[in-house]
């Protein structure tokens, strides 16, 4: 009888005053509530009182007429009381608002509220109709202590809430209906799992759930639950989720909105290009409208070389930006102005991003995502912004010997010719015979910037708009470039996923691609695309996090355990890679196994198991045979010279050649049956003289353990030895893919020695596929043992 079967349903209810919202901590989220400490005492008392009414005996030996059985029964009942004082997990409650009759199920956060009060989150308040739905916790109010002292008069004036404790079954199915059309998420499974796991303990039929997805928020109506139609628990359960529209009209509208979003007329007059795949050294032309993005992806390149990504604007009066992000398990989104790894947002006509092959961000990169953004022209008219800007995009391998920097200026220290002289104004080298005329003209018409030493015409628009930033080394020649620089580099920005305040756009992009909790990753343990940090995950500065190289979500998710497929030990998921490295080290350091000297036998002398354990033992006989093959030759007589053993081997060989084993599977070449079935001596029988001529060389080499012995064996053993011979002859190329770049590196052909193949087939009872798996897990290859 389980504890749950023995315990009756816990019954407890009360009516409490609802704490004001400003007296409830802002960290209280989802469907969790805060109860007073007295509620915990009452719940424990209710759980204990259930057991006290139990009258059935708790021990099988209890006899009311036997006083010697009373002590054991009394101890069993005391242990039962102590065990039943633990409350059910999870502890869930049924909340009823007496003012409007609304019902909601919730979980418990803690027992620390003021007496006779209950603290509710913003979600619970809205769901029960206690607060105005348009109002809510915007996250800006300060966290007040929920233990605010309230007198009895003020508590009685607060609205009341009825709280019942009620256990809920674990949910298996939920149907969600979107309240608005046009929802489009890349991974609904990851989005729902992360939000429901961090925020909710229960789900109530008919409640509204808001799921954040980046800058968007998706609102759903819970419209169907199993196994309980009213409410279910979400703790320690696998939940099947079905998302369907409220009506056919909403479904049609959603399809229309998604189709409109995905439609990008490539190459048309008014639309941005559709993007696509890039090829190294191919020139890609395209166009992009203001404030829009064109996304490209580079899937194959040589990982041993640096990349040079160049974007050239054809329209000189339009400004574009270039963003690059490696796509892999650590980066899952396309680059944007607030989320990119490499970028060039300068005002130059040619943008360039150089990506080194040794950059740590390129580790594990499956592809390289490149985005071109049309800078929003603030002063341009709406018609001018609708005209797309044309560009050329090219990815090439960087030539370290050539200097491709577009900003190459002359230095005053550069040497000049013998018949040349530098102008005192513009510092250009001019012929000595014309230097006087040049300087007069230059002083009247040109001006030199004292900071950047660039020369401008005094009446030119470039000089009138020339600027230098007082905070850094940036400069430009247009008012638009100054406005762009100020907006990108000197305007604070707020992260939409956390409370981080960035100094500028590059700082925000660095935060979003490194320590932002909302950064999407592909978890290597649950294989879902999830944010890298949840509420209950460790902080980024924890020692374990820094040493492991994992994200906070992976640290928490990797704490789950699994069984090692090699040794069957229980190992944490995040420790499995280190655990397998120990197995690999043991595999490489293993000495070669000893197999039976009989060429037809598929057994080892030591014996192995499916988990790779070797039962090494001292040799039991001087011939190097397994116990099964040596059994017919064993006698207890004293034979120091081995002459009697030689005679027994000779008689066995003669019996095999003259009489045979008469087994249809035999393929022994020193056996009449095996020679006949193998196509040797099919017409005539061997005589004793001919048989001895065959046997004598084998007997002369009997003491040489490197030579084979040929005894008949049973069919499974012979089959395993034959399969081991074929398995040992197999070779495979050791190749490794170059991090998703599509270029293979050829290695050395490898295989396994016959000893390991015999051991693998013996451990796996002759199953060839399982034997190959055993070899990969426990046996070193010939290439590895030869190093």
Automatic annotation (TrEMBL):
Pfam families in the cross-refs: AZUL (PF16558), DUF7590 (PF24503), UFD1_N2 (PF24842), Znf_XAF1_N (PF23580)
Top-rank lineage group of the source organism: Eukaryota
Ubiquitin-protein ligase E3A N-terminal zinc-binding domain segment(s): 651-677
GO cellular component, one term: VCP-NPL4-UFD1 AAA ATPase complex
InterPro entries membership: AZUL, AZUL_sf, DUF7590, Ufd1-like, Ufd1-like_Nn, UFD1_N2
Region called Disordered, residue ranges: 129-151, 396-418
UniProt-listed GO biological process terms: ERAD pathway; ubiquitin-dependent protein catabolic process
Stretches with biased composition (Basic and acidic residues): 132-149
Entry's Gene Ontology molecular function annotations: polyubiquitin modification-dependent protein binding
Gene3D superfamilies given in the database record: 3.10.330.10, Ubiquitin fusion degradation protein UFD1, N-terminal domain, Ubiquitin-protein ligase E3A, N-terminal zinc-binding domain (AZUL)
Domain DUF7590, residue spans: 271-398
UniProt domain Ubiquitin fusion degradation protein UFD1 N-terminal subdomain: residue ranges: 170-245
Protein's name in the database: Ubiquitin-protein ligase E3A N-terminal zinc-binding domain-containing protein
Provenance organism: Ramalina farinacea
């Amino acid at each position: 009888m389980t504890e749950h079967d023995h315990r009756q349903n816990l019954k407890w209810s009360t009516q409490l005053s609802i704490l004001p919202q400003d007296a409830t901590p802002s960290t209280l989220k989802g469907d969790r509530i805060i109860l007073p400490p007295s509620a915990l005492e009452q719940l424990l008392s209710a759980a204990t009182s259930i057991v006290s009414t139990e009258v059935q005996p708790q021990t099988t030996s209890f006899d009311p007429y036997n006083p010697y059985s009373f002590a054991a029964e009394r101890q069993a009942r005391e242990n039962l009381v102590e065990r039943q004082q633990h409350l059910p997990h999870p502890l869930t409650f049924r909340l009823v608002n007496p003012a409007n009759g609304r019902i909601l199920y919730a979980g418990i956060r803690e027992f620390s509220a003021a007496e006779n009060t209950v603290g509710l989150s913003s979600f619970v308040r809205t769901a029960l109709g206690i607060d105005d739905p348009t109002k809510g916790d915007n996250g800006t109010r300060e966290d007040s202590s929920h233990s605010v002292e309230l007198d009895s008069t003020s508590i009685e004036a607060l609205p009341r809430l009825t709280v019942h404790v009620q256990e809920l079954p674990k949910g298996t199915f939920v149907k969600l209906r979107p309240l608005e059309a046009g929802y489009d998420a890349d991974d609904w499974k990851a989005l729902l799992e992360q939000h429901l796991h961090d925020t909710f303990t229960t789900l109530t039929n008919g409640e509204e759930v808001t799921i954040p997805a980046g800058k968007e928020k998706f609102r759903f109506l819970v419209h169907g639950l199993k196994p309980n139609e009213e409410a279910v628990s979400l703790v320690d359960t696998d939940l099947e989720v079905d998302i369907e529209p409220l009506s056919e009209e909403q479904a049609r509208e959603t399809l229309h909105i998604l189709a409109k979003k995905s439609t990008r007329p490539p190459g048309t007059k008014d639309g941005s290009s559709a993007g696509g795949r890039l090829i190294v050294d191919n020139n890609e032309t395209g166009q992009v409208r203001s404030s829009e993005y064109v996304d490209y992806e580079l899937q194959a390149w040589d990982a041993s070389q640096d990349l040079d990504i160049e974007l050239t604007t054809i329209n000189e009066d339009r400004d574009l930006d270039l963003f690059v992000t490696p796509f892999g398990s650590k980066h899952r989104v396309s680059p944007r102005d607030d989320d990119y790894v490499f970028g060039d947002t300068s005002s130059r006509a040619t943008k360039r991003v150089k990506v080194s092959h040794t950059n740590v961000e390129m580790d594990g990169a499956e592809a390289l995502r490149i985005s071109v953004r049309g800078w929003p022209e603030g002063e341009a008219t709406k018609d001018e912004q609708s005209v797309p800007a044309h560009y050329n995009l090219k990815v090439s391998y960087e030539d370290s010997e050539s200097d491709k920097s577009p900003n190459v200026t002359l230095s005053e220290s550069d040497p000049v010719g013998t018949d040349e002289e530098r102008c005192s104004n513009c510092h250009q080298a001019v012929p000595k015979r014309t230097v006087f005329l040049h300087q007069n003209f230059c002083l009247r018409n040109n001006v030199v910037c004292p900071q950047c030493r660039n020369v401008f015409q005094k009446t030119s628009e470039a000089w009138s708009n020339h600027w230098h930033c007082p905070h850094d080394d940036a400069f430009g020649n247009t008012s638009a470039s100054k406005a762009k620089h100020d907006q990108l580099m000197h305007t604070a920005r707020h992260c939409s996923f956390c409370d981080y305040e960035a100094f500028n756009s590059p700082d925000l992009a660095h935060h979003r691609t490194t320590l932002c909790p909302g950064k999407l990753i592909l978890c290597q343990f649950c294989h879902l695309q999830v944010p890298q940090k949840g509420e209950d995950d460790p902080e980024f500065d924890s020692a374990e996090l820094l040493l492991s190289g994992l994200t906070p979500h992976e640290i928490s998710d990797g704490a789950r355990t699994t069984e090692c497929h090699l040794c069957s030990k229980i190992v944490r998921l995040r420790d499995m890679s280190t655990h397998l490295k120990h197995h690999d080290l043991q595999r490489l350091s293993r000495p070669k196994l000893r197999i039976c000297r009989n060429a037809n036998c598929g057994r080892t002398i030591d014996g192995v198991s499916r988990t790779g354990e070797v039962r090494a033992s001292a040799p039991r006989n001087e011939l190097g045979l397994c116990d099964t093959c040596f059994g017919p030759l064993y006698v207890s007589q004293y034979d120091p010279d081995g002459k009697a053993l030689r005679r027994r081997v000779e008689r066995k060989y003669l019996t095999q050649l003259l009489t045979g084993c008469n087994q249809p599977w035999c393929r022994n070449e020193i056996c009449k049956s095996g020679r006949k079935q193998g196509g040797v001596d099919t017409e005539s029988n061997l005589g004793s003289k001919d048989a001895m001529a065959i046997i004598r060389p084998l007997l002369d080499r009997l003491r040489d353990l490197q030579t084979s012995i040929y005894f008949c064996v049973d069919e499974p053993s012979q089959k395993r030895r034959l399969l081991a011979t074929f398995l040992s002859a197999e070779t495979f190329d050791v190749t490794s893919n170059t991090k998703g770049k599509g270029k293979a590196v050829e290695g050395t052909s490898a295989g396994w020695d016959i000893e390991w193949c015999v051991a693998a087939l013996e451990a796996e009872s002759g199953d060839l596929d399982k034997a190959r798996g055993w070899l990969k897990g426990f046996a070193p290859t010939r290439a590895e043992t030869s190093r």
